[in-house]
Automatic annotation (TrEMBL):
The chain crosses the membrane at residues 16-37, 57-77, 89-115, 121-142. This is Uncharacterized protein. Keywords: Membrane, Plasmid, Transmembrane, Transmembrane helix. It comes from the Bacteria.
Amino acid sequence: MTDSAPMIPPPARRWAWIRLGVGFAAAVGVAVAIGVPSALLDNPFFVRMTPVPWWSYAAWAVTSVLSGVLAATYVHAPSSAPRAPGRAGVVANIGSVLAVGCPVCNKLIVAALGVSGALGVWAPMQPVLAAASLAVLGWALWRRLSTLRSCPAGMSPAPMTGARPEPFAGQR
């Protein structure tokens, strides 16, 4: 007789699927959170008063993908990893919202610069802000991935036998 018990995936494979799911959900969430208020996605709640420039769609898509990958790195990660990349990711997403949004629809910009300033000063700065926010988001992801691949502070590298790393002699 054969055993008909369901096959349970190994923990590493299960965490990979969970990370994939979290990354996908975060990417979709960021896409909706940026796309709806900026009217990149047609919706009945927000109407854009200026046409959408071509680069807004590219910045929106890249922001969503990078944010999803960054969010996936926080699933089942060591707690000793720094939180600075996560904060930089939040700041970069806010920058992306400001970069792809309608310059005339942003009440803070209109209050500070007026409508002509929003169109004449803010609108030309938006592609620069988009590039800067994508650079910060890319840096946050690079920093997060490089930190996850490095050894924790105070630990010696694991020997080739597969054993757990031991603390240095002075740190026991």
